[in-house]
Design a protein that fits this description.
With 329 residues, the protein is α/β, with parallel strands linked by helices. The chain is 35% helix and 16% strand. GO terms for molecular function: NAD binding; oxidoreductase activity, acting on the CH-OH group of donors, NAD or NADP as acceptor.
């Protein structure tokens, strides 16, 4: 079989580590393909005509209609750990192997990214940086933030990445922890050495000073932060989301920022990527937006790229896949 490989919507794969692209070129023709973040279905199938291997970013959307119109795709390797942009049953039916980056590859980078933007928002680092560059040094007294030490951390999604966020913040800042997750890791929690309790969403939002979202996006977590949740939230809470944008109902969040329920939002993920220039989060005085960079460390990108290249090499060599999400005969 001849292979044509498409790198779809990823601005980072192969750019930092060109040796990874060289390895792919030994297998077949490699091209970068850029489509709209919302692209899907027959339109996406047309854009990828002639390619039978894809390495893809968090967008576009490989839905049922896509696989119905794209029967020659043999491998779809996600350049990341999430795969909510892929219809797994449709991929299986089409005979396409879907793989993702192994969870531990992104664990430290993404968790550290969550902590970084939280501290930025709480201590107004970016705001004061802009002021200093603009010669507004005398305004420094206006950049008064809040501390973390001794506060209560709320977390929704305490799995691979969320647990690492807890380790960093709870141990580093002596924080109490309230965690909402359907899976309880009691042995791990007992070793933390800080007050830790599993609770429901209502209890978490009502009692935390800082809330970080690290859950998968699925039907049970979609808009888990909605108007009802905000109505129960402790006033002046800081919220961090570097998981998936649709964990938050955006209109409800904007209302919570307006009435002071949420003091600041730090977000590294958007509903559409790239988002429209008039997205209401942009230039909002209480919102820190980053362009989905939480995994962007040298170590993280090297590991992610190695996994994707390895996926292609294993497939071509007839070896068993690693972290496969489809079950093929």
């Amino acid at each position: 079989m001849d292979y044509r490989i498409a790198i779809v919507n990823s601005s980072s794969f192969g750019t930092r580590f060109p040796d990874q692209m060289d390895r792919l070129r030994k297998i077949g023709e490699v091209e970068r393909v850029r489509v709209a973040g919302t692209c899907c279905g027959a339109e996406l199938a047309k854009a990828l005509e002639g390619f039978n291997v894809v390495i893809s970013s968090v967008t576009p959307f490989f839905d049922k209609e896509f696989f119905e119109n794209k029967r020659d795709l043999v491998l779809l390797s996600r350049h990341g750990i999430g795969y909510n942009n892929i219809d797994i049953p449709a991929a299986e039916e089409a005979g396409c192997l879907v793989t993702t980056v192994s969870p531990l590859v992104e664990r430290d980078p993404v968790a550290e990214g969550a902590v970084a933007i939280l501290l930025d928002a709480m201590r107004r680092v970016s705001d004061s940086h802009v002021a200093a560059n603009e010669g507004r040094w005398a305004e420094r007294a206006s950049f008064v933030g809040n501390g973390l030490s001794g506060k209560t951390l709320g977390i929704i999604g305490c799995g691979n990445i969320g647990s690492r966020v807890v380790e960093i913040l709870a141990r580093g800042y002596d924080m109490k922890v309230l965690a909402c997750d359907p899976v309880h890791h009691d042995d791990w929690a007992a070793k933390l050495g800080v007050p830790f309790e599993y609770a429901d969403v209502d209890t978490v939002v009502a009692n935390c000073d800082v809330l970080t979202l690290n859950a998968d996006l699925n039907p049970t977590s979609f808009h888990i932060l909605n108007a009802d949740a905000f109505s129960k939230m402790k006033k002046g809470c800081y919220v961090v989301n570097n998981a998936r944008a649709d964990l938050i109902d955006q209109p409800a969040m904007l209302a919570a920022l307006e009435d002071g329920t949420v003091k600041a939002l730090a977000i590294d993920v958007m509903h559409d990527e790239p988002p429209l220039p008039d997205d209401p989060y942009f230039n909002h005085p209480q919102v820190l937006v980053c362009p989905h960079i939480s995994a962007y460390t040298e170590e993280g990108l090297r590991g992610m790229g190695e996994k994707c290249v390895g996926d292609v090499e294993r497939f071509v060599n007839g070896e068993a896949p690693v972290n496969a999400k489809t079950k093929l005969a």
